[in-house]
């Protein structure tokens, strides 16, 4: 009896081990087969053979993590083959899975659209569900438009029901316009509202005008603006006239109404109008001065004052201008920048105790703004001047820790470890741009699709992730768009991730670096790579407003002069020639300026003649004092950007 029990126990254990083993094998096998079939199906899909692709996607096992993506692709194949009922079935399988994957809302939206086309009443239910379950999504916004069309197309026996549907349709179309005035259905929504032939109030007409404006239909925008009142929409009147080229009329609206500034007008719109107004003058300074002379006391006055201090006032009067701006608008949008300018002026005047007092106020009141890295850095410099070395080190370390991707982190690191030299990095260890997340997304679905190079589906599933959008753009060869998208996304993150985070590579890819390294001559290749990135963002066809061209943004005369004087091989392609010419030009600047990279970078943007002049006109004791006193704002920012990029390349690679 005991042996029998023992046998039963062994049998149960064996059965359990066999079941687990079979499950693991089946799961592993399913994943492997799923990847193989999906990869093959995707190639066929891209070739346009949707019938064959449909069959191949169907071979992805149900246990595979790619099954939902395969069903989605099958639905797309069926749609392309005009087999809409079959497509709806595939979308339904995804929708009914109750998965939290991002493939579910897009599948339900696509299914609802096919139902809408087939006049299936179920479409309305699904559009309403999308709005309720995914209210912030683009699918919810688009659902408003289709619900409006559904209400219009309803057949009613009695007039009161027709009127009710008309009211509902109007609400749906207006909601779409409010959420997405520049969206793909904006003009369609406007057309449907007009066709409803209902009485529109001022706000309705303004909403339509904004929709037309957002889509570049300025004449039509003006037509509907004329049905509103200026008090409600003077900024829109002005912007439309500027867009239509009627600068004088735009200026009249601005000068008249910016003084009155009735309530309800958004600050952003006022700032936009101010920018249009200033640009309408032959000289920005003239436009700013004119607005400043109006003695504005309303919304937008602080922006005008900031522009006046920043671009019009010169010399010693700047400090007083910024001080007045801060005192007048201590909690305004530009108060932190104004206070910083007073602070840095005091520092450059060597009034360290005054500067320290202002710096402490800035750090307390504005803990994380654009000027925070600079203030923290110069608080360290002040502590050094006052021989408070421990405090100085703490401030320097705070800059590196809190603002690691700033120009001031580069300078703080130099002050902490001077033995590494001004430019501590001389070569890089290249690493490729890869998918920006190590951790799984959607239970690894997005990661798997990325590995399989299904860029279009990854892009659809991750519309709101700028880093993934950046990666897709990079993979498609759109390097400029990729870098800008990733940079904008990183600007929104605080605290910043560590330098080994894969997202940094999207902002600072080493595109063209191999070419730069070969053509560097006696230059630091990382500096040349940084100049290339900041000049053109990797666009070999970039052309500036003043005529500078190519990756290194050389003026044609400079480019031809370098080509004529130097022995540049004729076999180089256009990108390599531009890099070679840029490298030689930079070498010439550096040699003429005492072999100092700082001065050569300044001259690359501001011109060698200007830099030579600054040596005698600027009083400075160190690198920081020179940079902060560069009289050309564009060149000052350029130097900081290039050195910041150099610092980031060194840390990432």
Could you explain how this protein is built, in words?
By secondary structure, the protein is mainly alpha-helical. It has 5 domains: 23-118, Tetratricopeptide repeat domain (Serine Threonine Protein Phosphatase 5, Tetratricopeptide repeat); 121-228, no CATH class; 267-420, Tetratricopeptide repeat domain (Serine Threonine Protein Phosphatase 5, Tetratricopeptide repeat), CATH 1.25.40; 445-507, no CATH class; 513-652, Lysozyme, CATH 1.10.530.10. The protein has 35 helices and no strands. The protein has helices at 2-47, 50-57, 67-80, 84-95, 103-117, 122-133, 138-153, 159-179, 186-196, 202-214, 218-225, 230-243, 247-260, 267-280, 284-293, 301-312, 317-328, 335-348, 352-365, 372-385, 389-402, 407-416, 445-451, 455-461, 466-475, 479-491, 503-507, 513-518, 525-536, 556-565, 574-592, 597-606, 608-617, 623-628, 633-652. It starts with a helix and ends with a helix. The model is unreliable at 20-26 (pLDDT under 50).
Question: Could you list some keywords that capture this structure?
Answer:
single chain, 653 residues, mainly alpha, Serine Threonine Protein Phosphatase 5, Tetratricopeptide repeat, 5 domains, 35 helices, 69% helix, globular
Question: What's a concise summary of this model?
Answer:
The chain is an all-alpha fold and 653 residues long.
CATH topology of the largest domain: Serine Threonine Protein Phosphatase 5, Tetratricopeptide repeat
The fourth-level CATH homologous superfamily of the largest domain is Tetratricopeptide repeat domain
What is the count of structural domains? Answer: 5
Low-confidence stretches: 20-26
- Look at the structure and give the CATH class of the largest domain: Mainly Alpha
Radius of gyration: 31 Å
Oligomer: single chain
């Amino acid at each position: 009896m005991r042996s029998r029990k023992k046998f039963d126990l062994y049998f149960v254990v064996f059965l359990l081990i066999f079941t687990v083993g079979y499950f693991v094998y089946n799961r592993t096998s399913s994943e492997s087969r799923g990847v193989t079939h999906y990869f093959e199906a995707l190639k066929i899909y891209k070739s346009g053979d949707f019938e064959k692709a449909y069959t191949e996607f169907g071979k992805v096992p149900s246990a595979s993590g790619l099954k939902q993506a395969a069903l989605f692709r099958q639905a797309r194949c069926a749609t392309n083959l005009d087999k809409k009922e079959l497509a709806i079935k595939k979308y339904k399988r995804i929708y009914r899975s109750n998965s939290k994957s991002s493939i579910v809302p897009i599948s339900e939206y696509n299914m609802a659209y096919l139902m809408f086309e087939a006049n299936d009443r179920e479409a309305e239910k699904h559009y309403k569900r999308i709005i309720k379950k995914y209210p912030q999504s683009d699918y919810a916004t688009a659902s408003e438009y289709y619900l409006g069309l559904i209400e219009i197309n309803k057949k009613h026996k009695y007039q009161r029901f027709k009127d009710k549907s008309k009211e509902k349709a109007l609400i749906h179309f207006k909601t779409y316009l409010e959420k997405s005035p520049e969206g793909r259905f904006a003009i369609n929504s406007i057309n449907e509202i007009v066709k409803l032939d209902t009485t529109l109030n001022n706000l309705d007409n303004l909403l339509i005008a904004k929709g037309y404006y957002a889509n570049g239909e300025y004449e039509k925008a003006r037509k509907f603006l004329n049905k509103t009142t200026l008090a409600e929409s003077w900024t829109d009147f002005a912007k439309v006239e500027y867009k239509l080229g009627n600068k004088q009329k735009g200026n009249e609206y601005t000068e008249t109404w910016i003084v009155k500034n009735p309530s309800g007008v958004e600050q952003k719109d006022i700032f936009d109008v101010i920018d249009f107004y200033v640009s309408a003058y032959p000289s920005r300074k003239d436009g700013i001065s004119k607005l400043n002379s109006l003695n504005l006391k309303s919304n937008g006055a602080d922006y005008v004052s900031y522009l006046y201090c920043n671009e019009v006032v010169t010399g010693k009067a700047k400090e007083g201008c910024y001080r007045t701006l801060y005192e007048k608008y201590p909690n305004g949008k530009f108060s932190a920048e104004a206070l910083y300018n007073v602070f840095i002026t005091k520092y450059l005047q060597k009034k360290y105790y005054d500067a320290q007092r202002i710096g402490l106020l800035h750090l307390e009141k504005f803990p994380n703004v654009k000027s925070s890295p600079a203030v923290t850095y110069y608080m360290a410099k002040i502590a050094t001047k006052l021989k408070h070395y421990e405090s100085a080190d703490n401030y320097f370390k705070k800059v590196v820790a809190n603002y690691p991707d700033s120009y001031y982190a580069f300078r703080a690191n130099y002050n902490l470890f001077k033995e590494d030299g001004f430019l501590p990095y001389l070569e890089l260890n290249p690493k490729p741009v890869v998918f920006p997340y190590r951790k799984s997304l959607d239970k690894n679905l997005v990661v798997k699709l990325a590995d399989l190079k299904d860029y279009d589906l990854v892009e659809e599933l991750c519309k709101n992730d700028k880093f993934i959008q950046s990666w897709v753009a990079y993979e498609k060869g759109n390097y400029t768009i990729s870098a800008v998208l990733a940079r904008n996304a990183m600007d929104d993150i605080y605290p910043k991730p560590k330098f080994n985070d894969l997202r940094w590579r999207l902002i600072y890819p080493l595109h063209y670096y191999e070419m730069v390294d070969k053509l560097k001559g006696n230059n630091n290749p990382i500096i040349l790579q940084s100049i290339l990135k900041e000049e053109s963002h990797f666009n070999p066809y970039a052309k500036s407003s003043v005529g500078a061209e190519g990756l290194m943004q050389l003026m044609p005369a400079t480019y031809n002069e370098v080509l004529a004087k130097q022995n540049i091989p004729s076999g180089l392609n256009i990108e390599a020639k531009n890099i070679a010419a840029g490298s030689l030009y930079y070498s010439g600047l550096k040699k003429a300026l005492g072999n100092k990279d700082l001065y050569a970078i300044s001259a690359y943007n501001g011109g060698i003649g200007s830099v030579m002049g600054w040596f005698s006109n600027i009083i400075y004791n160190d690198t920081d004092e020179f940079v902060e006193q560069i009289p050309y704002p564009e060149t000052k920012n350029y130097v900081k950007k290039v050195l910041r990029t150099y610092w980031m390349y060194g840390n990432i690679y």
